[in-house]
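Sanity check. The docking grid for magnesium ion depends on where the pocket ends up, so I'm generating a full predicted complex first rather than guessing from homology. Inputs follow.
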Amino acid sequence: MRILVVGGGGREHALAWRLSHEAEVLASPGNPGIAEDCETVQVSTKDHDGLVALCKARSIDLVVVGPEDPLIDGLGNVLRAAGIAVYGPNQDGAQLEGSKAFSKAVMTEAGVPTAAYQSFTHPTEAIQFARSRFDLGKGVAVKASGNALGKGVVVCNDFDSAVNAIERMMIAKEFGAAGDVVVVEDCLVGREFSVLTVVGDQNFVTLPIAQDHKRAYDGDQGPNTGGMGAFSPVAWITRELIEEVESRIVRPTLEALKAKGITYRGTLFSGIMMDQGKPQCLEFNVRMGDPETQAVMLRLGKGYADALLSSAVGRYIEAPEVSEQATVTVVVAGKDYPMSSSKGLPISFGELPLGSKLFHAGTSLVDGQLVTNGGRVIAASAAANTLPEARKLAYQAAEAVQFEGARFRSDIALE
Ligand SMILES: Nc1ncnc2c1ncn2[C@@H]1O[C@H](COP(=O)(O)OP(=O)(O)O)[C@@H](O)[C@H]1O
Ligand SMILES: [Mg+2]
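Predicted complex below; grid placement will be based on this.
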């Protein structure tokens, strides 16, 4: 099997690395770390025709799309129209991530447990609705409906901050068109986790659970980030809980999509919050999480490539092998991440412990020298028989990554 992985971040490095154990893998555009594990070809994720041409030229059997943007932009449709098997939904299914208003409407139709909400195109009505929720003694989350790069949600504990958030999104247009429609929903309270499911026409298979750490600094302090680390398995997330998420959230959502004539083939990422002991769906994404993917890929064995191909061609999906080992990923970020990203600083590596793997997230090669090229630079990952052991190895690997200002949280995987 010949697979093309589309994208060039830490998630795509982990995907390409895992898949390269069972298939011939190309990545486009890839990054210098990916280039150590498989062939990379410089075609932009925005160049849909270029990707079709690459698939034809290289007889690609399966395209695995890493990031959401190309899917929201319809890369799945373009590739499928050219007769190429794709792991990743078409534009219609990708609205689950591209439009929070769409996603909430599907959840409601499907009877999925989720916070009460309304969506708005006018700020005055949004503000009125927020007022009515505060009058009932509830807080609200104000969400730019479109793709706001993970920055479009403001959790508001008082009415003034809700008004402020609505005005920033709908009047000042801080997130551009992503704020044309705004979702206002009730605040939930509880622990969060995400469930990654490989979805096909006949069935779906949930991957091992990984928990990420979103805040920039130790003790869950500081600003939100794309994710500073992850680990798997997660002791408090029981099999029963995963089954409850599957039966109350994943399955009804896929049925509601089907009823709309939407065929969904790809990853369904369900963002869950345990509110009063019950899983509530916060959001859907249409791709794997980063850095959860890095922790999950280290636990997968044989059969992952086949599972993705089966999804892409509408066959029954067999679950891939999952190792009993524990895995930990520690993100090594630039000094000022997430406020700004790091560019052009030379990177070197000390000795890496056995069982560890560095996934490149934001690196590039300049005149043969590896340099930083992003906020999150390297995802230092490791697998071992126990979580504390994996943690120790991942931290040794993180310590071995050297560039000016390199920084990581010290409490990843301390549950
Ligand atoms: N209804 C809600 N109640 C409380 N917190 C929320 C709610 N919705 C979202 N959040 C918080 O905001 C974060 C981001 O929201 P989410 O819907 O996942 O959007 P995105 O990941 O696209 O930014 C969540 O991880 C959660 O911490
Ligand atoms: Mg989210």
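Relevant for the grid: Residues 147 and 348 are 35 Å apart (CA to CA).
Also worth noting: Residues 271, 283 surround magnesium ion (ligand 2) (CB under 6 Å).
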